[in-house]
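Recap quiz, item 2
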Amino acid sequence: MSAALALEQALNGVQLGVMLFLAAAGLTLIFGVMGLINLAHGALFMTGAYACAFLTRETGSFWLGLAGGALAAAAAGAAVELLVVRRLYGRDHLDQVLATFALALIFSDAARWIFGPQPLWLDPPAALSGAVPLPGGGAYPAYRLAIIVAGLAAAAGLHALIARTRLGMRIRAGESDREMVAALGVNVALLYTAVFALGAGLAGFAGAMVGALRSVQADMGEPVLILAFVVIVIGGVGSVKGAFAGAMLVGVTDTMGRALLPALFARIWDPATAAGAGAAVASMLIYMLMAAVLVLRPKGLFPADG
Amino acid sequence: MKKRILGAALAAIVAAGGAAADPTRIGMITTLSGGGAHLGVDVRDGFQLALEQAGRKDVELIVRDDARKPDMAKSLADEMIQKDKVAILTGIIWSNLAMAVVPSAVRQGVFYISPNAGPSALAGRGCHRNYFNVAWQNDDLHAAMGAYMKAQGFKRPFILAPNYPAGTDALTGFKSTFGADVGGELYTKLGQTDYAAEIARIRASDADSVFFFLPGGMGIAFLKQYAGAGMTLPVFGPAFSFDEVILGAVGDAAIGARNTSQWAYDLDNAANRAFVEAFRKTHGRTPTLYASQGYDAARLILSALDAADPVKEPDAFREALRAARFESVRGKFRFGPNHHPIQDIYVREVVPGDGKPTNRLIGVAMRDRQDAYAAQCRM
């Protein structure tokens, strides 16, 4: 593999990684602070994408659509927390899974009902439509580069929010001892709604950015939700740092697997068999990674409670 | 009182049962949601257009969405065969779904008329007297493009397709005419929407062209990302990668691409002119090849229904299907011994159109193409 190709594939891996981090950060925060397993998180990702596609079409501005996508997902998250999820904190995980799975189904059917069963297609903004030359003779799509920058900025912002601000202090306090935070007079109800809306907003932001790259459709949340769970299990459930590490690991492993395995297998088998086997093993690779991490570190790379 | 209601209900059931036995029921299982939705929508719309034009009251069509899920398609087929008592099944777009449904359906005595999926397994050793494919065998359009690209002097095409039965058929078909020496070959996941890793590999290869089979939403995502990555190698594919819906979503980035098809909306024959005009009038859009396949499937079934009843006289109905006495929008059309078409395959080029690019017929890639599996079929 040439240096230019390696660089391009590494960037592809990082781009997938930051997208997964934005989707997984909310999932892990919500579990860490409220102890809730939220299967509707993929639906919030989809909400951001649909809101972005709708606003971009209505206003003609992708940037308004992007901001609107994140805000709409955050608002949907806050509404879901206030109306449904609030009643689930005291229940066991099975009840939570059932209720949030129902929410996921309601969201995707609502999207089909409002926007139709066919996908919506969204173009990246004209300013980011071309490719940027890379050192070594390669090139890289400007829009994907922008996703990397925006995702890393969001990760840095989230880190600063949690480490430096009063809200972040309360989030950290909530993660280590929920009852004590309430006893100290913090408005826990408001804190929970804020955390849920923050996580939903990040997922919606990721959905809106990815929507322009791929397509906007009602079932786009499911695969992202599954990958986000893989990410937080690898990283350590409840840990934002772990989610970042896990997302990068999954993003790079998945991309490199798709890039390298078929070529590797081609040394053993004929090209047709190698291409088929390579594609099959590449799609399993992240699950093998998860299994390996769980064998070596059952609580993930960065366990939240220790 | 209770008894009277029960009696009335019974009478209603008997009446409904009696009435339902009369019309011929056709079950359509197709993809109407998700990234592959426009394929199923066009098959359905083409099929329904033919039924409406025929104006027959004795044919009832039941349409259900399989969401491109094999288990869903299988359970819909069981429901239609057992509960709705359909005589004919049709509609499936994806070969992996066809493999889940067709073999058991035809063994139960139901006729299956495929308007799209044509996996090699059902054309060769797995052929069946009750299975007819009115579209093509999966390899056909790809084999035609392999022959065309070889004739055009391309040496090292990079070829890619999704990893499912029609994907492997596609690349096998392409190499059967082009030769095995290609610039690169890879399989992607079915339904994949991000092609960054694949595009990077194409860029780094020494390929002189790209041949891809990515139907539906996959093709839209790939072409958009391919253009966004600043790639300039000429692209080729079967018509599935460049249908009118894909071209509408991708826009000018697709101009210049060439693709092979057994049908084109600007193909000049009377049946086709009437079909394209009627479809545009009813639906306000140009039909894709999927619509033409749905239309031909319905017209084939109607032509056989004129001759025999599929439930009472299955053998005569089968013979009538085999004779294919209908005017195909493709022009001449006949079935080979394995119930797959023998037909011409055309080349089309994507040109700027009215608001969005469109396909224009530019020539013939292969005459009287018959699939490579016909000899393996013993009925």
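Residues 118 and 137 of chain B are 4 Å apart (CA to CA).
The first helix of chain B runs from residue 2 to 20.
End of item.
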